Amino acid sequence: METVLAFVVGGLYAAGLFLMMRRSIVKLIIGLSLLGHAANLLIFTMGRLTREYPAIIPHDSNQLTGPFADPLPQALILTAIVIGFGVQAFAVVLIKRVYQTLGTDDIDRMRTPDYESN
Amino acid sequence: MNIFLLLPIVIPFLTAIFSLLLWNRWQWQRWLSVIGATLLLAAASELLVIVWRDGIQAAQVGNWPAPYGITLVADLFSATLAVLTGLIGLVVAVYSLANIDDQRAQFGYYPLLHILLMGLSGAFLTGDLFNLFVWFEVLLIASFVLLALGGEPAQVQGAIKYVTLNLMASALFLAAVGILYGLVGTLNMADLARQFRTSAPPGLVTTLGILFLVAFGIKAAVVPLHFWLPSSYHTPPAPVSAIFAGLLTKVGVYALIRVFTLLFIQDIGYTHSIILIIAGLTMTVGILGAIAQNEFRRILSFNLVSHIGYIIMGLGLFTPVALAGAIFYLIHDIIVKTNLFMIGGSIQRLQGTGKLRKLGGLYVAYPSLALPFLIAAFSLAGVPPLSGFWPKLALLQAGLEMRQYAIVIIALAVSLLTLLSMMRIWQEVFLKDRPDDSEVKIASPLSASQWTASLLPILILVAITVIIGLAAEPVFKLSMLTAEQLLDPTDYIQTVLNN
Predict the structure, then answer these.
(1) Which residues 58-77 of A are in CB contact (within 8 Å) with B?
(2) Which of B159, B178, B235 sits opposite A73 (nearest CB)?
(3) Is B456 on the interface with A (CB under 8 A)?
(4) Exposure check for chain B: N or C terminus, fewer CB within 10 A?
(5) pLDDT by residue (tens digit) across B117-162?
(6) Which one of B164, B177, B231 has the shortest CB-CB distance to A114?
(7) Does the structure's ipTM exceed the value 0.90?
(8) Residue from B95, B111, B137 nearest B238 by CA
(9) Model pTM score
(10) Residue spans per domain, chain A
(11) Where are the domains of chain B?
(12) What is the CATH code for A2-51+67-114?
């Protein structure tokens, strides 16, 4: 399972970076969110992939025994997903605003701040 | 638990909430903002006094013991930066009274400003890497909106680049944090430092260090990861770019210094050499960019990039004196850059343009802006006895001691070029006669109270620059003690884990 997820994470990174290098701002934003998902899946894999063993301490013991998946990375991912959701929502509004203001979605035409107009 | 550890985070948070409650009475938000920032400065100063007197302070939020819960820590480094956050927050809040238009104030400028300050304080005071990520996101989302607020074409175009590069840095940071957790099983910085020091650190650690270097390097805008900065920082209104220039890149620098003194010191010959090379590149490329520009705040943006290099240089040399120099430089740079961006913004406001070609004659027209500019510019270039001279001296001395002659020569040359780029502004904007063909439309003239609110923060920061320059001894002592704390984190680890 780890191997499969390793390839999925790698594929997500590749796809995200590829999309970010396109000229359309829509693809740029999709690429960014794919990068975020890749990072989240990476953390998920780091927390060990163990099925059917919830991280619950049994009644007659005071520590976890046996195989279990580390719950902390999953908590981290939850936080990261929520943050990513907020940031992507903002990014989507931003590209809408950019499109309305400039009438183009081509990142190559968004150079006003880089060049001095006379 | 020490309440003063929480106050620098809670005060801006409450200010932001009360500002939101006053959404329809946005005029009140302006004064609430000044009050909130004053309280923040007071609380942060008290924290610095406590840390100075009683040593490092730590608090476990939620009462979970150290490596499991979220820790807030204030050592001298954190506390100093929290004070600077308060100071810059206060001057920018005052400056905003006159330089933020009513529309922006109506659409949530003030709540966002204080969320930004909260994010900064949180990032400086946290002792947990994932929590640092969260604070980064808090301040980033606030800065995204501040940058785009107003929706002028240049602003949204700058915002696209700023948002993209910073989100990419966040994704890298998050991935690095995840891998680190997988390797070590903790994200508490003190616990990480203890484990790295007591047992042999796992092999991937240096690789991870480089991943952190890239992630924080993007945020700190070091060459070659700086491209987003000069294309976005000059687009928003003056108060926004002033606080960005003062504090936002510095939080990246703070994170770099923190992780590369506390965590990733396994292979100093490798990682810190890379940092030193980056420092040289940053100084050189930044200043050459500044010389090629023809607009006030764009020149300043490139100078901002260039002078990050000096701070990184101190980290790369990695001796007590070098780190002390870097911390002193950080303090100086925050104050001077904020000031220069406020002066530049005021001139743009008064003259309707920031282009050097169209400006002129301001020495006669506005001597009260010219003189502060001159002092800040000289300080930036490192002319004695202003605040920029002493840290530069310490850095050069440390460079010579370490026999890193190349970086010393670059640092000296970049100082001269900084002076050149500042004198170009001085010549073009202040001394030269006002060009006749200047079709500048002068924005509405400032009323007396607006003029006071614009000038007061500039004069306060100039005064601080001069005072730091003339009485460098206490600041240098603070920097030296901070550097010693950073290089020997035994206290830090002890305080956090035994709290």
Answers:
(1) 72-73, 76
(2) B178
(3) no
(4) N
(5) 999 999 999 999 999 999 999 999 999 999 999 888 888 888 999 9
(6) B231
(7) yes
(8) B95
(9) 0.94
(10) 2-51+67-114
(11) 3-497
(12) 1.10.287.3510
